[in-house]
Design a protein that fits this description.
With about 600 residues, the chain is an alpha+beta fold. It has 19 helices and 12 strands. The chain has a 5-stranded antiparallel sheet, sandwiched between helices. Helix 13 runs antiparallel to helix 14. It starts with a helix and ends with a helix.
Length: about 600
C-alpha cells in the first residue's frame, strides 16, 4: 500500500472522530486509533467469512452467530464517532470482546479451547483507554467469561460438536499465534499513542517556552524556599542580567533591602493560603554598581498545584516594570495636593475677605439709602437722588455677587451646614413668590403658583430651599420679556419633592444647557451684555440640591422658554460628613 493510500485512510479515520475530541492532539489520536481498529477488525471478519464458506461449507447457526458477533466492533466504532464518549466505548468494547472470546471458546472446547488465551487480551486492550474503571470492567468481564466456561463445563452444557475445517493442532497453533499477533498490535498501538503524547507534550512545552521568552514580563518559578528555579529571557530586559544569573537567590539579591521582607512574605502567603497575591517592590537594574538604579516593579504570584517529586507546591510569578505608573501616580498625588492647597488658599482668602468686602458694602448701601430717602433733609438737585438710587442698587447687586461667591465657596469646601426641619412646602412657595411679585409686576409679567393638594411636609434646610427657589424664580423673571408669564409649581414624583419653575422667556440654546450650573458660566448666546449677573445662581442651586441628596434639571428651547426642576428626596438618608471630599464631589458635578 502506497503512502498516499495510508495518508488517505488515516485522514478518513480522522474525519470520523467526534468534534469534542479534535481540540487535543492526544485525545484525537486515541479516538482515531480506537475507531480504526474496530472498523478494520469488523471488515476483516466480513472478508474471512466467504473463505470460511469455501473451506468449511455451510455454517451452523452457532457458527453464523459467531461471525455476526465478530462484526459487532463496527457498531461500537460508530457509537464513539457519534457520541464521543471514549471511556464508555472502551467499557462496551471490553464486555463485547470478553463475551465474544467466551462464546467462541465454548464452541471450540470450553476450558480446553485454543482461544482461551484471548481473554488475556481483554484487559490489555482496555489499558489503552488510560481509565481505571474501563480496565476494571475489562478484568471483570474476562473473569466472568472464564467462570462461565468453567460452570458450563461442570454442568455438562456443551454445544453440538463443532467440526473444525483444519486439524486441532493447527487450530491451536493459529489461536496462539493470532493472540500473540493481537497482543503485539496492542503494544504497537500503545507505542503510537505514547509517541503522540510525547509530541503533544513537546509541542505544548515549545508554545509555552516561546511565550515565556517573547513576553515582556519576567516569568519566574520559585520553590518552597523562595529560590528561583526557572526564569524567562525577559530577565535581561527587566534586570539587565541573564536568566541564569537570576536563578537561586539571584533575584532576591536584586530586591531593595527595605522591600525584601515584603517580597518573601508575598511568596510565603501565596503558598500558604493557596491564593494569588500581588506585591510591589523596588528592583535593582543595571549591571555594574556605577550605573545601577532601582525601579518599581509589580510581582503577581500564583500557586502551582502539588505534583509528584515536590514536597511542597511551587509558586509561579510574573514581574513587570511599573516605574512609569509610579511616576504618573506621584505626579497625580502632587497635582492633587497642589489643587487642594489652592482650594484651601481660595477658601481662606474668601473667608478673610468676606468681612473686608461686606463691611464697606453695607455702609455704601446704608448711606445711599439714607440719601435716596432724604432722611436728614433735601438734597436739592434731583439728579442727586438718582445717583443715590443707582449707588444703592449697584451696592445691593455687588453684595449679592459677594454672597453668591461665598456660598459657592462654602459648598465646594463642604462647609455649608444643612439643618433639616419639616416645613410646609406651600407656604415656602407663596413666600418666595410674594418676595418677587412686585419685581415681576413692574416688568409686566404674570407670576402664578401651582401647588398640588395634600403635599407632605419636606424635611430639609428651609433657608437653603428658600434661597434655591428665590434664585430660580429671579432668573425666570430676569430673562422673561414684558407680557410673559412665570409659573412656580410643587408636586411629589417618585418619592421626591419637585419644585418646577417655568417661563416663556428667551430660553437657552441646546449647546449651552450642559454647561449651565457650573460656577461663573452663562449662556453666551442669550445672556451676554444684555443681562447682569455673575453666573453663580444656578451653580449655588445645584450645590445646595446635591447637599440635600437631590438634583437640578433644566429643560429649555431657545426663544420659547425654560423649565427648571429642583428635585429633593422626601426620605432623609444618613448625612455624609461635611468635609472637603464631599465638597469636591459637589463642585465636580
Amino acid at each position: 500500500m502506497s503512502r498516499e493510500s495510508i495518508r488517505g485512510l488515516s485522514a478518513y479515520f480522522r474525519s470520523l472522530v467526534h468534534e469534542s475530541a479534535r481540540g487535543d492532539a492526544l485525545t484525537l489520536a486515541r479516538h482515531q486509533t480506537f475507531i480504526a481498529s474496530r472498523l478494520l477488525g469488523g471488515a476483516l471478519a466480513l472478508c474471512v467469512f466467504p473463505i470460511y464458506l469455501v473451506v468449511g461449507g455451510k455454517p451452523s447457526l452457532l457458527s453464523a452467530f459467531a461471525f455476526l458477533w465478530l462484526m459487532s466492533p463496527i457498531a461500537i466504532a460508530i457509537y464513539l464517532s457519534r457520541a464521543g464518549r471514549f471511556a464508555v466505548a472502551h467499557r462496551i468494547s471490553a464486555v463485547n470482546f470478553a463475551g465474544l472470546v467466551t462464546y467462541c471458546a465454548w464452541l471450540t472446547g470450553g476450558l480446553a479451547s485454543a482461544l482461551l488465551p484471548w481473554l488475556v487480551a481483554v484487559p490489555l486492550e482496555a489499558g489503552l483507554s488510560t481509565d481505571r474503571r474501563s480496565v476494571a470492567w475489562a478484568v471483570g468481564a474476562a473473569g466472568t467469561g472464564l467462570v462461565a466456561l468453567a460452570m458450563l463445563g461442570a454442568g455438562g452444557i456443551d454445544p453440538t460438536p463443532f467440526t473444525l475445517p483444519i486439524p486441532p493442532a493447527a487450530f491451536a497453533f493459529i489461536g496462539a499465534l493470532s493472540a500473540m499477533a493481537y497482543a503485539a498490535g496492542l503494544v504497537v498501538t500503545l507505542q503510537l499513542v505514547h509517541r503522540q503524547s510525547e509530541y503533544a507534550i513537546e509541542a505544548s512545552e515549545e508554545r509555552y517556552r516561546l511565550l515565556a521568552e517573547n513576553v515582556n514580563d519576567m516569568i519566574t518559578l520559585h520553590d518552597h524556599r523562595g529560590r528561583v528555579v526557572f526564569a524567562s529571557q525577559a530577565a535581561r530586559q527587566l534586570l539587565g542580567a541573564t536568566a541564569p544569573a537570576v536563578l537561586g537567590d539571584g533575584l532576591f539579591e536584586h530586591v531593595h533591602v527595605g522591600d525584601r521582607p515584603a517580597f518573601l512574605s508575598a511568596l510565603n502567603r501565596c503558598r500558604a493560603n493557596n491564593e494569588p497575591i500581588s506585591v510591589e517592590f523596588r528592583l535593582r537594574r543595571g549591571g555594574s554598581s556605577d550605573n545601577a538604579y532601582y525601579a518599581w516593579v509589580e510581582m503577581r504570584c500564583r500557586p502551582m498545584p502539588q505534583t509528584d517529586g515536590f514536597d511542597q507546591s511551587a509558586v509561579v510569578a510574573i514581574t513587570r516594570d511599573i516605574s512609569q505608573h509610579k511616576e504618573y501616580e506621584a505626579n497625580l498625588l502632587r497635582a492633587r495636593g497642589e489643587a487642594e492647597g489652592a482650594s484651601r488658599a481660595k477658601s481662606q482668602f474668601l473667608a478673610s475677605m468676606s468681612h473686608e468686602l461686606r463691611t464697606p458694602l453695607n455702609a455704601i448701601i446704608g448711606f445711599s439709602e439714607i440719601l435716596e430717602r432724604e432722611l436728614f433733609g433735601k438734597l436739592g438737585e434731583k439728579r442727586y437722588r438718582d445717583y443715590a438710587r443707582l449707588i444703592h442698587e449697584s451696592g445691593e447687586h455687588l453684595l449679592g455677587v459677594v454672597n453668591g461667591i461665598l456660598d459657592m465657596s462654602k459648598i465646594e469646601a463642604g462647609k455649608f451646614s444643612i439643618v433639616r426641619e419639616p416645613f410646609c412646602v406651600g407656604d415656602l412657595v407663596k413666600s418666595c413668590c410674594d418676595v418677587l411679585r412686585h419685581t415681576a409686576e413692574t416688568k409686566g409679567l404674570t407670576l402664578t403658583t401651582q401647588v398640588a393638594d395634600g403635599l407632605p411636609e419636606l424635611a430639609a434646610d428651609k433657608r437653603a430651599c428658600k434661597q434655591m427657589l428665590l434664585n430660580v424664580i429671579s432668573n425666570a423673571v430676569k430673562f422673561t420679556e414684558k407680557g410673559g408669564w412665570v409659573r412656580v409649581a410643587a408636586s411629589v414624583e417618585d418619592g421626591n419633592m419637585v419644585f418646577a419653575v417655568s417661563d416663556n422667556g428667551i430660553g437657552i440654546a441646546e449647546k449651552d444647557l450642559p454647561r449651565l450650573g457650573n460656577p461663573f458660566v452663562q449662556a453666551a448666546s442669550s445672556y451676554d451684555r444684555s443681562y447682569e449677573g455673575a453666573g453663580l445662581g444656578l451653580s449655588v442651586v445645584r450645590g445646595l440640591a446635591q447637599l440635600h441628596g437631590g438634583s437640578l434639571d433644566l429643560e429649555s428651547t431657545l426663544g420659547q422658554g425654560t423649565t427648571v426642576r429642583i428635585v429633593l428626596p422626601l426620605e432623609v438618608e444618613a448625612e455624609p460628613p461635611a468635609n472637603e471630599e464631599h465638597g469636591a464631589s459637589v463642585a465636580a458635578a
